[in-house]
């Protein structure tokens, strides 16, 4: 089975992806957070920092596009193709109100006629692999049936299903029943996404839904970045460097790499660097036993030096758990 890193806006940036790959990788595919097409001829500086191949060396990256205008999707996909990308992903899952109110992301699922015209157009005019990341529907789970019928009319490289409706946001549990139906109905390869936190969770998906060719992991991976690599056991890497096996050592190396890269990208601007790092910690502190007190201090840090001291203290305090 294949493992994919989910796109997480603001978090799974090129900096995060490459550090992950060198410390815990490889992942079979890395999906970028969504790109919103614009009318400029090329990507802007922020987008280039995430998309350009030199920032994603050695990784299979799939850029994701968020739009409900086929001409915008086509123009952006062609630009990505010029940068060497072989696959793009259509975002039909974003539940955020600002996105949905414009009929984009999961909001696009509310107008299947328009979606069909959009898909007709992009599949006709593009010569690049296209995958889709979709919710089960906008309001009701029953929408999934019509949606899968629609997806079946197009040769998607894969359909990645996050089996919640837009209305559910991230509440409750992702619906295994929806996913089962999708597996039964789909003619395209299918990938599961939602609430996977352990390798057992992932293997259970494969066992229960044998049509599954891949799983995509988001928050579970941010909280415990080591969880897939510790189970997959990259034997070659371990044999070459047994010390690397230690979870805390790897996490520390990972953090150092992400932090240094953000310091460089933001010219050590304290506010920007700390904002990025705190977002990562808001998930990852879960990995650290008894870290509430120091976690609070990290979240409150306003200076890089103060932050650095707190983080090294945190890793030092993990020695008994090695
Ligand atoms: C902070 C945050 C940012 C996200 N950004 C994106 C995004 O840019 N594109 C997308 O398709 N999904 C995005 N998602 C959804 C995730 O990719 C994923 O579908 C969702 O978190 C469910 O998977 P999980 O339970 O493994 O986290 C985001 C989710 C979160 C919490």
Summarize the structure.
The chain is built from 15 helices and eight strands.
Biggest beta-sheet profile: 8 strands, parallel, barrel
Radius of gyration: 20 Å
CATH homologous superfamily (4th level) name of the largest domain: Aldolase class I
User: SS-based structural class?
Assistant: alpha/beta
Average pLDDT over all residues:
94
CATH architecture of the largest domain: Alpha-Beta Barrel
Report the portion of residues in β strands.
5-15%
What is the 3D form?
globular
CATH class type of the largest domain: Alpha Beta
Order of helices and strands: EHEHEHEHHEHEHEHEHHHHHHH
Ranges with pLDDT <50 over ≥5 residues? none
Q: How many runs of DSSP E, i.e. beta strands?
A: 8
How many alpha or pi helices?
A: 15
Bound molecules: flavin mononucleotide
Oligomer: single chain
How widely separated are the two ends?
A: 30 Å
CATH topology of the largest domain: TIM Barrel
Summarize the amount of helix as a percent range: 40-55%
Strand order of the largest sheet: 1-2-3-4-5-6-7-8
The total number of structural domains is: 2
